[in-house]
Amino acid sequence: MRTGPAAGLRATATKEYLRVEAELPGLPVIWSGSLSWRAEGGVPEAGPGQEIVDTAAVMTLEPNLRQPPEWAIWAPGDGAVNPVGVTERLVAGARAHGARVHLDTAVTAVRRDAAGQVAGIETAVGPISGTTVVLAAGVATAALGASLGVRVPVEPSSCPLFRLHAPAGLVRTVVNTQDFDLRQVAAGQLIAAADSPERTLAAVRSTFCGAESVELLNTRRGARPMPADGEPIVGPVAEVPGLYLAVMHAAVTLAPAVGRLIARELVDGIAESALSGCRPDRF
């Protein structure tokens, strides 16, 4: 069970996604629930929104398992997010509310005026003015911060994803084990987050009945931003007036909750207590 500064935010993730889904119908989230277990056995500890289920319940949820665990954690409210699809839907929603969106426009620097106040950004196609800049550039955040003399302790963390061809209905929930995070994303396709394509294929085939025909379709390897302590870095930077940091882990999980809180802080001027443990000045 996760603890730390963002534990409360993580506990609200499902509710926040449901809020966004109500505002943007068609948000690509599959509310399948999730099952988690580890090989060492023993009765695990359930967190908020979770329950402990036995072998019989596990087989009801995932009937294709070869050797179901004695105990597992079942989170019925969990969903599988299509991050690209959600991003596209959010961008479309922002545009519908009057936001100007500049796609494929590289940001090269944050601009400051003579007094040191943020004045906008420099891009590959010219400057964009603004009195507040939210630096939410993922793994590029550290370099952009360094150009202003601001240390942002975030490093790239490799994140491989494997897309697999599989029989429809092979996996019913989001399955999390010591071998993979696995979910069915379309009829005949799975996505696995794991370390090795070879080990992932072997693990899927040995975990599920009827998985002998599972094959690797492609591999994608991204670089996710990982703060030094594994917790989000969110808030204003005192030494650079107008600069606001937003570096997540885990970004897909926390995006709706943190996005709403950041908007309240910047637009309404409300200091959100839920973000108090995530401030940049803790480093």
Number of domains: 2
According to CATH, what is the topology of the largest domain?
A: FAD/NAD(P)-binding domain
The average pLDDT value, as a whole number, equals 94
Number of strands: 16
Strand order of the largest sheet: 3-4-2-11-12-13-10-14
Order of helices and strands: HHEEEHEEHEEEEHEEEEHEEEH
Strand content: 25-35%
Name of the CATH class of the largest domain: Alpha Beta
* Main sheet properties: 8 strands, mixed
Report the radius of gyration as a whole number of Å.
21 Å
Structural class: alpha+beta
CATH architecture of the largest domain: 3-Layer(bba) Sandwich
N- and C-termini, Cα separation: 24 Å
Number of helical segments with 4 or more residues? 7
Low-pLDDT residue intervals, each spanning 5 or more residues: none
Shape: elongated
Helix-residue proportion: 25-40%
Specify the CATH homologous superfamily of the largest domain: FAD/NAD(P)-binding domain
How would you explain this protein's 3D organization?
The protein has helices at 7-11, 13-23, 55-61, 83-96, 141-146, 197-207, 251-268; strands at residues 29-30, 34-36, 51-54, 71-75, 80-81, 107-112, 118-123, 126-129, 133-135, 154-165, 174-176, 181-186, 189-193, 215-227, 233-236, 243-247. With 283 residues, it is α+β, with helices and mostly antiparallel strands. It has two domains: 34-76 and 157-226, D-Amino Acid Oxidase, Chain A, domain 2, CATH 3.30.9.10; 84-153 and 228-282, FAD/NAD(P)-binding domain (3-Layer(bba) Sandwich), CATH 3.50.50. The strands form four sheets. Strands 3-4-2-11-12-13-10-14 form an eight-stranded mixed beta sheet. A three-stranded antiparallel beta sheet has the order 6-7-8, with no helix packed on it. Strands 9-16-15 form a three-stranded mixed beta sheet. Helix 2 (13-23) packs across helix 7 (251-268). It is elongated.
